[in-house]
Fold this protein.
Amino acid sequence: MEKSIQEGNWKVTKYVDSGEDETYHFNGYTFTFDGSGTITATNGSFSNSGTWSIQTDDSNDDLDFNIFFNNISNNFDELNDDWDILSNSKTTIELIDRDDDGNHDYLTFEKN
């Protein structure tokens, strides 16, 4: 998975925050993930960088997809989390975050 995400450009095709579809916050952004752990989002006039990683969670069969943007303007703080991986392929990565109150956030990246 780490290798495939480093290849090409990605876009957010789904971002649902506690039941509210907020995908529009990231319309027009292109995301890149490089091998040194840098994630960059650009839309032509604004660019934001941060870090990404894939790590084993508490149990060895659970992987977390960690995203942390340094500049939290333009709603990028919403993406900062240790996401659980629902599914992944060479063209799609589906992530979920579950909180203690039973709310779920969903984030999907698709290759451009």
The mean pLDDT is 92. The chain has one domain: 2-111. The longest strand covers residues 47-56.
